[in-house]
Amino acid sequence: MKNFLNYLKLRDKLLLMYMLSVFIPIVLTNVVFYNVTTSNIRNQKIRDADMALNNLKNDLRVTIDQGVGLSYSLYTDSIFNKTITRKFTSQKDYVDTFNSYLRGALADENMQGVRWYQVYTDNPTILASGYMDRLTGEIRKSGWYTRSLASSASYPTFIYTDQKFSLIQRLNNYNTGGFEQLVKIDLNIEQIHQIFEGSGFDGQVYLVDPQGRVQFGNVTANLTKDIYFHEISFPGSSRIFDEAYSDINYLKGWTLKGVMDEESVLKEVRKSRSFVIWLACINFVLPTIIIAVMSRSIHVRLVRILRHMKKVKAQNFETIPPEDARDEIGQLTAEFNRMTETINSLINEVYVADIQKKNLELKQQQAQLHALHSQINPHFLFNSLESVRMRSIIKGEKETAKIIQHMAKMFRKSLSWSHNDVTVREELELIESFLTIQQYRFGDKLEYSIVAEPAALGLRIPKMVLLPFVENASIHGIESSPDKGSIVISVTLQADRLIFRFQDNGIGMDSDKLEELHRYLQDGDDIGEHVGMKNAYCRLKLCYREGFAFSMNARYREGTSIEISLPVMEEKPG
């Protein structure tokens, strides 16, 4: 695929580089910066609003719970309930009871959340005094009493009437003697106002009853009687927050609604828009001037070089007027002038003589090539071995023919491998041919075993990297040992690793010799032998780098074991 940049003029490339490297990144950076800043401020404001509304919810509950605690204390006081349901024999009897017990039982507990509370009963023997009052027909017609009838639960009813919050608790926990009695607790509305005003919520907050009516808020100008929250109109950019009292019996259904105008919250961020634009303009102008000056310095001088090169094409060897410049284009100009002068000199003085000299050298090389072709090539040796093998078969020398066949097989493989890597199967076949020849050489003194997992035979490895280790075991191990020699070769797969193990019971080596051999393989110290192992070790290290693992252990007169671990290479098709 052609690179389209190679077809653009330098001026267009510089303009494209400016657009991609300066203009677009600056625009994107400023847009992303502005949007991220706006989003972060919006999210922070939302978190602050949620926290503020939740704090308001908890503070309001603390105030209401003070009244709830008072109502429960009266609701669960058996002595108090039995006293107010008792039929007093006279006014003096009631006054004595009031002074001796009721006055203390109804004493003001000095709770900041409670403004006033009153116990109502229709017991005709009780006089209206202090915190006690008669439950008359007029009171039964009042708004708070009517709304309290909607609930018959044992917990107090939370209502808002006559611009105040109240808790209505019916005192029916014990035998009332047929009388109706309840306690009405008015909460401190000034304290509730302070809670709403000091909530820290950046917007409007409304307290909505279970029916959806707005009963209270920090903005009372737009609150009218029985106005529903969904009827209030808010700006389109407003965000509504909800905090419901869902787990409290006496506040079930009541909800705090917070309304925040996101546009007003982000007003300060909008003001910074002009600053971002001015900053972007500065970021545009300064790089533009710098790039324009530098690009002109490059473009004008390159065009001049190109113009003179076209003159050279027309055999006009005019040099470029020198300039005081040491950058790459200045060096290119100087080299162009030097090249132009050299070409002109070569054409005028040396060209003809050089052509004659080259013709002579070419004829000499052709003569050498013909001499090389006339030499004996490796295929002549291979064919000669095949001829000897066939003659041995004709004469009945089958063992000699077999060995010659293995030698020819090894020679043929060395000629036919056209790639740097082969399969494990091909490498093992080469090793088996070598060991067969060695077994013919040593006779009964050598036995060998090759065991390979079938899954490993198709994997590829660099060619002729295992044979030097087998050759080393045969020549330096088995040949030097007076006992019968054994060479065991195994190939296994472990996870994604290919493991080769070579074990012989030859002469082995002592620890000093083993350490010296290790240094030779790793550091390249020349100790006069094991050249094949060194070559194979270096090739494996070069091919697999950190994936190559090698270990060698030996003991004198007990043998040598070598393990090579390689990462798996995929089998190549065909």
Describe, in short, the structure shown:
With 574 residues, the protein is α+β, with helices and mostly antiparallel strands.
Walkthrough of the structure:
- By secondary structure, this protein is an alpha+beta fold.
- The chain is 52% helix and 17% strand.
- It contains 17 helices and 16 strands.
- The strands form four sheets. The chain has a five-stranded mixed beta sheet with strand order 2-1-5-4-3.
- It is elongated.
- Residues 363-382 have low confidence and may be disordered.
Q: What would you call the shape?
A: elongated
Main sheet, how many strands, which sense, barrel? Answer: 5 strands, mixed
Briefly note the structural class of the backbone.
alpha+beta
Tally of separate helices: 17
Helix content: 40-55%
Q: Rg to the nearest angstrom?
A: 53 Å
Binned strand content: 15-25%
Average residue-wise pLDDT: 79
Query: Would you report the number of β strands?
Result: 16
The main sheet orders its strands as: 2-1-5-4-3
Low-confidence stretches: 363-382
Give the N-terminus to C-terminus distance in angstroms. 28 Å
Topology summary:
Elements: H1 10-75, H2 78-84, H3 91-105, E1 114-121, E2 132-134, H4 137-140, H5 143-148, E3 157-161, E4 164-170, E5 181-187, H6 189-197, E6 204-208, E7 214-217, E8 238-244, E9 255-261, H7 262-265, H8 267-271, H9 273-313, H10 328-373, H11 378-394, H12 398-416, E10 421-423, H13 424-442, E11 446-452, H14 454-457, E12 460-462, H15 467-478, E13 485-494, E14 497-504, H16 511-523, H17 531-544, E15 549-555, E16 559-567
Parallel strand pairs: 1-2, 11-13
Antiparallel strand pairs: 1-5, 3-4, 4-5, 6-7, 6-9, 8-9, 10-12, 13-14, 14-16, 15-16
